[in-house]
Amino acid sequence: MSNTNTIIVEGIPSGALGSDLKEHFEKVGEIDVIEIGADPITGKATGTASCMYKESSAAAKASTDLVTFQEKDLKITLASPSPPKENPPKSKELLKTNRYPVTTFQPPKISLYSGDPQPKPSDCSFEAWKYEVTCLIKEKGYSREVLTPIIRRSIRGEAGGIVRYLRHEATLEETIQKLEGLYGTVETGAVLLQQVYLSRQDHAESATAFGRRIQIAQCKARDRSGISPDCVDDTLKIVFWQGLLDEQLRNAVRHKLEGVKSFDEVMRIARAAEQEIVELSKFHSRETPNPKTAQSHPTQQKDDPIQKTLEALCERLDRLEIAS
Fold this sequence. Notes:
Layout: E1 6-10, H1 18-25, E2 31-38, E3 45-53, H2 56-65, E4 68-69, E5 72-73, E6 75-78, E7 94-96, E8 101-103, H3 126-139, H4 144-153, H5 157-164, H6 172-183, H7 189-197, H8 207-223, H9 232-243, H10 247-257, H11 263-287, H12 291-302, H13 305-323
Parallel strand pairs: 2-8
Antiparallel strand pairs: 1-3, 1-6, 2-3, 4-5, 7-8
């Protein structure tokens, strides 16, 4: 008799829930872990699972007594016993039920990129797509075999047509390089940095939006080696202050500009000052009387019937005084 406490299950019906499997296999003994097999690309269940019991006797009983599940025949085999490991590998994700963890695999989700002149609302920019893909590659949380088809499927439209002309063995780096040459930023780092220095706040733009805009432009210049990462914060602080339109806001930021080290702190100061200026403006507008309202009172008084009656009585009194 085998001393393994784990069974391998095949032929699980599609749509079966983890709670259903738990209820079925727990009939013969207490369960430690159930791992449900999933396709590494689509994440869909493959109809297989492994079930680890507390006792090996429960595993042996399950292999003979629990071969029917939801009116379907299951293929249940006892797993070969393996030597214990001091640090067993952890699964990528554990979906916990009442008393046991169920292991599944979730493939990464990547934003879509088409490269079309009129992209759909669901499409992102090339820079955003490239950032997501580069981060996934550097994190090494997924193998190249998993990432390659997922990244290729995220490229649609015109860009997708270009990628299809690459050879099947093309690496992810070669794919990114091909799209970079067609859709990436063509300006040099020096040109991008010059655009940052010439940035000014638009009349319809808040200080916060202006700060975000120059920060994105600065990141592009940094990625193109237009500026050293150590100089980014100091450059942003100067450009932001020089580009502000509101004199009150400039003065509020200037007094604290030298005392802060990061641009994020400058942005917090500017947001607070801008909010205060807006609130003060609203307060003063409520105190100032409306000229149209102030001018409407004489007209209303002139057309008032009570006022006309009083004026008529005053005229009569004046005539009586003159007659006497």
